[in-house]
Amino acid sequence: MCGRLARYLRFCGYDAAYALDRGVEDDDRILSIVREENRTLITRDVELAERATDAILVTERAVTDQLAELAEEGVDATIADEPRRCGRCNGRLERSENAPADGERSSHVSGDRPDHVPDDRPIWRCRDCGHRFWRGSHWERVAEELANVGNDSDREK
C-alpha cells in the first residue's frame, strides 16, 4: 500500500490518486483507471507494475525511502510553495482568507478559519471534502522530511 506516499506527493502538489481512497482494490480496475486518467502507476506490486504501460516500482516500505526511489526516477519531491491538493482526498484546494465575524465561532466544516489557526496564516479549503489546511507544524515536519529525501544518512535502513 502506498497511501502515505500519495499524501506526501500531494504535499508536493501532485495529483496523486490512491486506489483505496476510491474503494478500488482490483488490479484490472486499477489499471483501467491509470489508462483512463493518463496516470503513472506507483506501486510495490511487481506483477501490477509489469502490466502497466507507465509505472514506477518502489521496493521500500518507509515513505522517505519510497520518495528517494521516486527522486531517482526523476520525480521532484520538493514541497509546494502553497498547498494545491487535499492530503485526505486529493481534491483541489482554494485559498480562503475570510475569517469568521467577531464573536462567531468557526467550525471545521462550515467556518473559514478554525479557532486554533493563527490569524496570520493563510488557509486553504478542499473543493471536494471541505477540509481546511494551513502551513503549521505538520507542514514544517513534512517539508523537513522532504528536504532530506535522498540523503542516505537520514534514510531508514
Helix content: 25-40%
Q: Find the structural class using helix and strand composition.
A: alpha+beta
Strands in their spatial order, largest beta sheet: 3-4-5
Low-confidence stretches: 99-110, 153-157
Mean pLDDT: 85
Q: What's the story with the biggest beta sheet?
A: 3 strands, antiparallel
Distance between the termini: 19 Å
Radius of gyration equals 18 Å
Encode the helix/strand succession as letters: HHEHEHEEEH
Number of helices: 5
Walk me through what this model shows:
The chain is built from 5 helices and 5 strands, in the order H-H-E-H-E-H-E-E-E-H. The chain has 157 residues and is an alpha+beta fold. Strands 3-4-5 form a 3-stranded antiparallel beta sheet, with no helix packed on it. The chain has a two-stranded parallel ribbon with strand order 1-2. The radius of gyration is 18 Å and the shape is globular. The longest helix is centred in the C-terminal third of the chain and has 11 residues, at 137-147. It has helices at residues 3-11, 27-36, 46-51, 63-72, 137-147; strands at 41-43, 55-57, 93-96, 123-126, 132-134. A hairpin with a 5-residue loop joins strand 4 and strand 5.
List the helices and strands and how they pair.
Elements: H1 3-11, H2 27-36, E1 41-43, H3 46-51, E2 55-57, H4 63-72, E3 93-96, E4 123-126, E5 132-134, H5 137-147
Describe the structure concisely:
This protein has 157 residues and is of the alpha+beta class. The protein has helices at 3-11, 27-36, 46-51, 63-72, 137-147, and strands spanning 41-43, 55-57, 93-96, 123-126, 132-134.
